[in-house]
Amino acid sequence: KPRLSINKDIILTPPENFAPVINQIYRSSFPQPTNFAFLTKLKLKSVLCLIPEEYPEIHTNFFQNEGIKLFQLGMSGNKEPFVKIPHDLITEAIKIVLDPKNQPILIHCNRGKHRTGCLVGVLRRLQKWSLTIIFDEYRKFAAPKERPMDQQFIELYDETELLNYAEENQLLPLKWNY
Amino acid sequence: KPRLSINKDIILTPPENFAPVINQIYRSSFPQPTNFAFLTKLKLKSVLCLIPEEYPEIHTNFFQNEGIKLFQLGMSGNKEPFVKIPHDLITEAIKIVLDPKNQPILIHCNRGKHRTGCLVGVLRRLQKWSLTIIFDEYRKFAAPKERPMDQQFIELYDETELLNYAEENQLLPLKWNY
To answer: Does the interface ipTM go beyond 0.95?
Structure first.
């Protein structure tokens, strides 16, 4: 059968490395204006940006028009051998992500591989996933630039403060919606 | 700081290639008993199996105890060069997946790469994603065994019957929960 013609105006373009993490927590690379039509479908309440650079004006206008709240916890990018994911910023980031008032929420950095990957890895630690599967998922999104030091950060992350905070605020366990 | 001791009894082990697709539609490789504790957290209503082989008894017992409904649309596995994904079975599979009465639902085959990858690719076609991003996602899960013929199946899949069915049953557009 002939394939129906595609109306290219209605094709949606998610950002690279876009995926749902759990329920209405999403991840991606740095979103561009070509992705805005897709992003509106997510009905985002918040966006959490993990890079330190300022958004271009076209982005802040879009977020403003959509009523999307911006959180920014900037972590330096890749300048190996000086790459270090900061424990305390990841802790603050998780608190933002777990808060139901901020969901639906999109987490992004630049490529959606390393900073985002570390954050999602820590979320999976809180979900009690095995390190094997946490690292498998990390590598899916980081390939071909997997960093053992990211995986080690995830493995050794001290969740004490987060567990206390989550208990006070009834944020864990993180449950799959049904 | 010293890392807290892990109580290995409470570590959850998702199946390999597990991921949410959209809302309460999930994908994975063939789940094993070691994954059952994790699967109960998903509160599945249904499981859609894309391989033709029968489940072992330990699986059917688990599904029965959890009140999970089983759908099976068996498609042959890899016997290249005779690999062919059947259009009509994919169509029936999508109808099952889109039905809200069957969700939360887990889609799986053997490795969660090819048969599952084709089904999710067609779902993304219905979501109007660009082929570029559809294929990116396909490759994430199929690597290192990506099949161009799977991608071509997704690209050339004739969605006419599905669109008609979905319109009659108000199943599209598939909306992200919020």
So the answer is: no
> Residue B129 and residue A12: Cβ atoms within 8 Å?
yes
Beta-carbon contacts of residue B177 (< 8 Å; ≥ 6 apart): A23, A24, A177, B23
* Active-site option among B21, B25, B90, B109: B109
Q: Which chain A residue shows the shortest CA-CA distance from B45?
A: A178
Mutation site, B12, B32, B91, interface A, largest A CB count within 10 A = B12
Q: What pTM does this model have?
A: 0.94
Residue type for position A127: Q
Q: Please tell me what DSSP assigns to residue B173.
A: S
Cα A92–chain centre separation: 13
Q: Which residue has the tokens 């991608």?
A: B151
- The answer to whether the peptide bond before residue B15 is cis (omega within 30 degrees of 0) is no
B93 closest CA partner among B82, B81, B110, B109: B109
Q: CA torsion A169→A174→A176→B4, rounded to 10°?
A: -170
In the chain, the amino acid numbered A91 is: T
User: What's the CA gap between B156 and B117, in Å, rounded?
Assistant: 15
Taking only Cα atoms into account, the Rg of chain B, rounded to an integer number of angstroms, comes to 17
Closest by Cα among A96, A107, A106 to A45: A106
- Per CB-CB distance under 8 Å, the chain B contacts of A12 are 127-130
Contact A130 B18 (CB under 8 A): no
* Contact (CB<8Å) A11/B130: yes
Written as tens digits, the pLDDT of chain A (178 aa) is: 445 555 556 899 999 999 999 999 999 999 999 999 999 999 999 999 999 999 999 999 999 999 999 999 999 866 667 778 999 999 999 999 999 999 999 999 999 999 999 999 999 999 999 999 999 999 999 999 999 999 999 999 999 999 999 999 999 999 999 8
CB contact under 8 A, B41 and A175: yes
- Which residue carries 């987060």 as its tokens? A162
CA distances from B61 to B33, B36, B57, B70 (A): 11, 11, 6, 12
Do B178 and A130 make contact, defined as CB atoms within 8 angstroms?
A: no
Determine the residue of chain A that is closest to B9 in CA distance. Answer: A128
| B99 has a chain A CB within 8 A of its CB | no
